[in-house]
Amino acid sequence: xxxxxxxxxxxxxAATAVALATGCDNKTGKAGAxxxxxxxxxxxxxxxxxxxxxxxxxxxxxxxQSSWTALRKSLxxxxxxxSDSAYATARRLYNTRYDTLKPSAIAYVKHxxxxxxxxxxxxxxxxxxxxxxxxxxxxxWSSGNxxxxxxxxxxxxxxxxxxxxxxxxxxxxLIDVYEGLGAHGVTIPGGSCPTVGISGLTLGGGxxxxxxxxxxxxxSLVGATLVTADGKTVDCxxxxxxxxxxxxRGAGNGNFGVVTELRFRTHPAxxxxxxxxxxxxxKAAKVVASWQKWGxxxxxxxxxxxxxxxxxGGTPSVSVAAFSLxxxxxxxxxxxxxxxxxxxxxxxxxxxxxxxxxLDAMESYAGCxxxxxxxxxxxxxxxxxxxxxxxxxxxxxxRSHFFDRSLSAAGIRTLMDQIEAGxxxxxxxxxxxxxxxxxxNRVKSSDTAFVHRGSRFLAQYLTSxxxxxxxxxxxAWLNSFHDAMRRHSSGAAYQNYxxxxxxxxxxAYYGGAATRLAEVKRTYDPQRLFSTFxxxx
Length: 537
What we know:
The protein is α+β, with helices and mostly antiparallel strands. The chain has three domains: 3-22 and 271-511, Vanillyl-alcohol Oxidase, Chain A, domain 3 (3-Layer(aba) Sandwich), CATH 3.40.462.20; 39-50 and 59-151, 2-Layer Sandwich (Uridine Diphospho-n-acetylenolpyruvylglucosamine Reductase, domain 2), CATH 3.30.43.10; 165-268, Uridine Diphospho-n-acetylenolpyruvylglucosamine Reductase, domain 3. It has 17 helices and 19 strands.
């Protein structure tokens, strides 16, 4: 059973509840990756970038097959085209909605020189590029018809921490990040979906069950390496290319270059406690009212999310998932206050608190408790896949809102009405309200390009359906839900939950940072080589 389906049926308790709240959230999926850049590699790239031109083909025109052949020969990584047996698998994203997309080629780059070669090809032949890390783009923008996909999955090394800092290749999948760092007793804050790429998650913000304690994923970033549109390798941090480093932390997906390595400050990975509580639907209004006052103000180590699920033809359900880096007793006492505070829902119908090791918790949230690390991947022989992989793909659509203040009684009623309507219409869907605050909100809104530092919680509205099903009634419900809640929200949206339906996406994602981001874009991508998707800066 798939992770989102498990969530909708209430299976797996706390683990599956978190699967939606923290998401399979690369979510723009447009982040580049490669391993540590060196002067030698950069020099090799400079001498190799004319290789594709040797095969001929009109400059600034459609690339000929001989040009593609020359590009293939010039790369150390694998280039997959439609005529190759691997193409049917290589072109696919995580979401089956985008199975009709047909890129011209997929380049599994091995190092910065491969990336520079691909970018030179793109400039020479006006070939649009897309950058793919985990392939989890909500909008499908880590692929595209007739595009050259620069896939960074082979750049996946998770370095042993040194001096409290780890170097991670931008194509590393989350399960490998957690396993690799867990062996050293440390972690970085991140999401729950095991096959999400670390760069896509980080460059759009990145939240998960330890974000209230440790901040967003991008808040632990201390440096990055990327290949810019001109093929140059650039290292950035707070001291060098500081404006670019600022922009990467919240607006880096697909906008400024192909990220090759990320350097993170690590955090302890202690024992933890997972919790999951349910109430009858008749208590839903009180659960939401109580949770929204409670969740965002808990001690930093306590994360929580409130879920309302629509079940086709059945009664909706309401639940709260929680995770704590503190003690069992402290979390139990906090949850008692959630239930018993004035106006609260009272005792839960079901309660489960589970002490666990940190890595065990991450595996549980990934849906991989009974799987080996190799099995907790997509199956296959391409970079990012494993021969033993057992994870499938999913079909879904989602939208989001940030909320800077608690919902009014009318807002809560609207939330419930939409969930109830979904069930009557035969839609499998839900909303996850994720508590923010803590370390997330102690960062100034101007310190990074992730500006949503004053919000109390984030809502993700989601619907899913069988791969061969029709999205019509489901997406209609989703849009109606989003529209109905807009007036109760701040109007902002989470950039990692890429939403092609937003007309005001620039202000919704970036707020007052948009002007400064435009300046950074002009500096590092003046010819707009990376502006090949509708919401490019």
